[in-house]
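--- STAGE predict ---
source: upstream dedup step, 1 unique chain passed
mode: sequence only
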Amino acid sequence: MTPDPAPTRLFTPRFFVMCGFSFTVFVSAFFLLPTTPLRVLSLGGSTLAAGLFLGLLTYASAASGPFTGAVADRLGRRRVLLCTSLVLTLFSLAYGVTRDYRVYLALAVVHGVVWSGLLAASAAYVSDLIPENRRAEGIGYWGLASVAAIAVAPNLGLWLYDRGWAWVCGAAAALNVLMAAIAYVLPEVRLRAHSAPGGGVLERRVFLASGTLFLYSLGYGGVTSFAALYAERSGVHPRGLYFTALGIVILLSRPLLAPLADRFGTHRVLVPCLLCISAGLALLAVGGSRPWLLASAVVFGLGFGTAYPAFVAHVLRHVAPSRRGAAFGSILAAFDTGIGTGSVATGWLIHRYGFGTAFGAAAALALLAAPYFLVVERRLFGEG
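--- STAGE serialize ---
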């Protein structure tokens, strides 16, 4: 079979279909992620247990990411997208009928394995559609689909939650079916590599470099699980205000900032973004009133929105096309470990010391991401 030629255009029909797929994926996910902690609390769980849901899900995703990414390279990315979408439908229905929050925590482990396969396969699929000289821009635009989902889904999910938990889970299941339908009509991307996928499960250099993502995703895990609860405890309505503001900032800033990484280099764009992430978390630590939440969302969003596409564009220059699934699996392993650890640690710190201390600790750890990137990237790739 003749391999697909190298892409020369960024905006193609398949690229837009993948954007639609990712939008659907993250709307479904963010129906569940902000509302499940509230559901756990309503069933008698503590804030620590509420944080454990996302923590266990992302730990499982992190541990399985290198494996599921390599599976996507070998079995075909479209096939993995289809199968994982169907399995996620079953999980959404299972959450709807469960009445014991401890069962939620058990389901989250298997859910995380499926989630890692879905994300690694979709990222590898879309990376083959993007011209190499527009990689940061392309990853950035594709990622806007998930950002748009994050901007609208939490508030809609919370609105559904107020009408009953079954509405949340039923809507998520319906979107999972739609994901499967989109994956079914996608053609498989034929690898442009000169050889079949090979090598070990883990892309070691990519995994080590992804410590950068781990350090700042700690704070993102805390934000994902507890920003709505923070707003509620501070008397701010709507509870999903932070997510909406964050999504709008990323939607406006990423198209302007991500192409700069292709033009001027990832270091000049990524390092300021990492510093903005830390500053945004520090603002969140100062207070949970409406002005502080909005200020944090703006500063955090400016950094968080562009840091990921700039980082991915950098490391993919050193990865063969036939190993992109494994590379994204390694990225997921580090990123999801950070999200899971951040969710669990933030829940524990909030329970013991309050929201300010929890987000202050996240800001301090995120501040280490920039020097880590500069030192480790120079040693691994001889750049910087």
